[in-house]
Amino acid sequence: MESFERDGLRFDVKDAGPPGGEPVILLHGFPEDSSSWDRVVPALHRAGYRTLAPDMRGYSPGARPPNRRAYRLQESVADVAALADAAGLARFHLVGHDWGGAVGWVAGTALVHRLTSLAVVSTPHPRAFVEAMPRGQVIKSWYMVALQLPALPERLLLRDDAAVLERFLVRGGLDAQSAHRYATRLREPGALTGALNWPRAMPLNAQRGRLPSVSVPTLYVWGDRDVALSRWAAERTARYVSGPYRFLELAGVSHWIPEEAPDALTDALLPHLSAHPVV
Predict the structure, then answer these.
(1) Domain span including residue 244
(2) What CATH number is associated with residue 65?
(3) Shortest CA distance to 216 belongs to which of 140, 124, 76, 115?
(4) Which pLDDT value is given to residue 58?
């Protein structure tokens, strides 16, 4: 499949790998798109998995609602369910990075009967994230506060053909080639506003401080050079997974694990997926 629809929005999807393989849905973060998984999916395909990587709301040209309320996490969880329905998937594995990881944590409770396994990359459990705020996370999250301003962040980040955005991403550890690719795409009309509406909707995610524990078998991968997400939150996440759980810390790796350390990520993903097969 190349796309799916929900509530009048049309989402682009990269559907690849063996058609009959166990399905793995891959969710990207900010300011990435489905191409963030390009260095990960070949190993999954060789292992026999089918991958479905959507360009999420705000990133797909046909799915850029202007209202920040449309970017609450429960809306994106419903998008995941709609993708699975369109692909005919009763059950599937779910992997999410950054904001895609935040969607994954919510899906781990809202779609518990459809998820065979969950893997979250970089993003701590929302309750651990909130509890980490007075313990240094608030300093790492300064940019989320700045992005709440209307219009001004778009004007600043898109200056000089988005060179400002590129420099911001590279300073955060992303390689220059990926930073240029993502920044170039976000120059499309409405694209950056759609991407920024994810953090702008954060105050509307009422469940973020009281989300139930996740019972789905879960892998959590975090890089110890992550400039956006703290160690305290990463280690605290174990409190909010009641099912089988593994926490993997990648030494010397930044926030951008799918781009920077795809081999280490797939080395962790493959045994996790095979231990919890889709039946």
Answers:
(1) 3-275
(2) 3.40.50.1820
(3) 115
(4) 97
